[in-house]
Design brief:
Number of helices: 29
Mean pLDDT: 86
Radius of gyration: 27 Å
Strand order of the largest sheet: 7-6-8-12-15-16
Largest sheet: 6 strands, mixed
Number of strands: 16
Structural class: alpha/beta
Shape: globular
Length: 689
């Protein structure tokens, strides 16, 4: 926040060099929060000006920060090139301390790529610059030497380097550095077989990370912060699993949940203020309104077949990214002016609230391994090595490729029905054999099942997995949740009566069945109010939200894989983004998004699923029905009336199951009927009308 103030002051002065320096410092700040797009934007602004002005030292700092971000986003060759150029600039001005610091970062990248020799050589070179090194430099060198020694299986050397690092960390006293020392102490203790010391060190590292995380005032910052800090959780989970006793397995299960969707839990329990108003200046509020209007225009062009801009997709995307970046900057400023609230509830207090009669299948990925935790009848079963990420990844790629073929339309699907259905069932059968078949004896044969996906498994339609004769939803009523804690919180929310419904629809030439869908479901809803086309405005929606218990939206949805908080649902006069929804104060109890890809999310560090589903849950919605892929307009108009008819006597998961089975009779291919999933609370049902 202070840097933003300084940048604003410098903007009105002739201190050009200082302005570029400030952009670099801002980039460093965003990088420390793992907000990489913001960091790269700041670094690139600084780089452009610094190259023109020829300020070598500051350009070196900028390139180093840029190199670190490029490495963390997987662009290793560009990252190494940036760091090597930074070293050249530092050597040009004789700044050996910065040369050493950059060599440490370079060695970290080389170690991550398995190049131990180059990593070790660069650390030796950095250490030779001892007189120029600060205590911070020396601590970074020692920590990197611990990592290299452990990678080389030299535990004794690692212990020596750690002793030196610990002494420096105590001298400096910065929590971020202390956590890094504690984590490495745990790794060394685990290698030497000192389980008690390893557990203590890992727990200390996790505590320090949590103490830092809860000081951050916004969801965006908290979500990104864990991105590069999950190693203590993963190693402690692995340690508890290796011990194998009941108490250790319970602790592993608790840690698995603690390491995912923490920021979403924070919002659900009120640990983060979701409102921007208290931190927005009048000027920022006005600018934000103008930027959102520009973004709405771009989104409209993307869906308007008559738009002159529609063919220039890349140009529109670049414009959207620039506008979204400006919006994010304003929101970060507003968040920085606020203070975080209380920390999230611990897992233990939530797990005690889980219903013992409702089986839960919680997935977890560790390295390439995919494992399963099955909570049933109050007992926990763990299945290791169910399958691997390298097995599931190509199967999901095949599934998505097949879904893309189905976008050719109803005529194409009808003409090639038999072959397309066979292909889909084959892929879903392979996914079933990899994920469900190994768990067959541990899972219920009929009844309810809650699935908690993890990592790439968020993209698996478990209810549509096929065993060669039937789909999983033929015998199980399946619902989903981002984490056990989120599911528990949804169950704990008081079930109020659904007395008022709001049905919103925006049609266009590609959505011709919207009005038919709305007319079909209205008689099944209590006190329905309809907002169709021109009436479906942002103002009308906001006016009616406080009285709405059930919200149904039939419209276009836009999933932004590159910027998921800007995923949005179309209204007549604007686009309602995930961020907008997360700020609602009067979220409906139940929401159905009869819209394309409304349930898709980007999975960030800490398994934070960013998208529309998360936005509604954080705003207070108890149960949702959303889609994982493109919704066929005609199919939705057929499925939704059956869903709402069933919802009068059953919860959302059971009602959706009945609607999908019924819809399958007319549209057998899973692409048509399986896109929708039920998320969150399995009840309430809608009272009979």
């Amino acid at each position: 926040n202070a840097l933003q103030e300084v940048a604003a002051l410098l903007a009105d002065s002739d201190a050009v060099a200082d302005a570029y320096r400030m952009q670099t410092f801002l980039g460093d700040t965003w990088r420390s929060l793992n907000l990489y797009p913001e960091a790269l934007q700041a670094y690139r602004q600084a780089e452009t000006g610094l190259r023109a002005s020829g300020i070598a030292h500051q350009l070196g700092l900028t390139l180093r920060g840029m190199g670190i971000v490029l490495a963390r986003t997987g662009l290793h060759e560009k990252a190494i090139a940036a760091l090597e150029e930074a070293i050249t600039h530092f050597e040009q001005v004789g700044n050996q301390s910065q040369v050493a610091t950059t060599l440490i970062e370079l060695s970290t990248m080389q170690l991550a790529q398995g190049d131990l020799r180059s990593a070790s050589d660069n650390l030796t070179r950095a250490e030779q610059l001892t007189e120029a090194n600060t205590p911070l430099d020396m601590l970074a060198i020692r920590l990197a030497q611990v990592d290299v020694a452990l990678a080389a299986e030299s535990v004794s050397d690692a212990a020596v380097h750690l002793t030196a690092a610990q002494s420096l960390a105590e001298q400096i006293g910065i929590p971020y550095l202390t956590y890094r020392v504690a984590y490495r102490r745990g790794r060394i203790a685990q290698r030497t077989g000192d389980v008690t010391a390893a557990i203590s060190a890992y727990e200390r590292a996790i505590t320090l990370i949590e103490e830092m995380r809860v000081t951050l005032p916004s969801d965006a910052m908290r979500s990104a912060f864990l991105d590069d800090k999950l190693a203590p959780w993963n190693d402690l989970i692995d340690l508890y699993l290796s011990l194998g006793d009941e108490a250790s397995l319970q602790k592993a299960f608790a840690l698995v949940d603690q390491a995912r969707a923490r920021s979403l839990v924070d919002m659900m329990v009120g640990s983060v203020d979701r409102q921007l108003e208290s931190g927005l200046s009048a000027a920022d509020a006005q600018t934000l309104q103008a930027l959102q209007a520009q973004l709405n225009a771009i989104y409209n062009d993307l869906f308007d077949p008559n738009s002159e801009q529609r063919g220039a997709f890349n140009t529109m995307r670049e414009r959207a990214i620039k506008i979204e970046h400006a919006i994010k900057q304003i929101r970060h400023r507003a968040a920085a002016a606020q203070s975080p609230l209380a920390a999230a509830l611990p897992f233990a207090s939530l797990s005690e609230q889980l219903p013992t009669d409702l089986p839960i299948l919680a997935w977890h990925t560790q390295g390439d391994e995919i494992m399963a935790f099955i909570y049933q009848d109050g007992a926990l079963t763990i299945k290791r090595h169910v399958t691997t990420i390298s097995t599931i990844t190509p199967l999901l790629a095949k599934m998505n490729s097949h879904w893309n073929r189905m976008r050719a339309g109803q005529q194409f699907a009808t003409r090639h029905h038999g072959r397309l259905l066979q292909t889909a069932q084959r892929i879903l059968h392979q996914l079933h054999d990899a994920l469900i078949a190994p768990l067959q004896t541990a899972l219920p044969t009929t009844g309810d099942l809650v699935i908690i996906p993890h990592h790439l498994l968020h993209h698996v339609p478990f209810h549509a997995l096929y065993d060669g004769a039937a789909y999983l939803l033929d015998r199980l009523t399946i619902s989903y949740a981002p984490s056990v804690s989120v599911f528990a919180l949804c169950q704990q929310r008081e079930t109020a009566a659904i007395e008022q419904s709001l049905v919103v629809g925006v049609s266009d030439p590609s959505l011709v069945y919207v009005k038919q869908e709305m007319n079909a479901i209205r008689p099944m809803l209590p006190r329905p109010v309809s907002l169709l086309d021109e009436a479906a405005t942002h103002a009308q929606l906001n006016e009616r939200l406080p009285q709405t218990d059930l919200l149904h939206i039939a419209s276009h949805a836009l999933f932004r894989s590159d910027n998921p908080r800007f995923s949005a649902v179309r209204l007549h006069d604007s686009w309602m983004t995930a961020r907008d929804i997360s700020e609602w104060q009067d979220a409906p109890i139940h929401v159905t998004l009869s819209a394309c890809e409304s349930g898709r999310s980007v999975v960030m560090g800490g398994d934070e699923t960013i998208g529309l589903t998360r936005a509604f849950l954080s705003a207070g919605t108890q149960s949702l029905v959303v889609s994982l892929w493109l919704v066929q307009d005609e199919t939705a108009a057929h499925l939704m009336p059956v869903y709402y008819q069933s919802l009068q006597t059953a919860g959302s998961a059971a009602a959706l199951q009945a609607a999908q089975i019924k819809t399958r009779e007319q549209y057998p291919h899973p692409w048509f009927w399986a896109s929708f999933i039920a998320v969150g609370k399995r009840k309430p049902s809608v009272p009979s009308v």
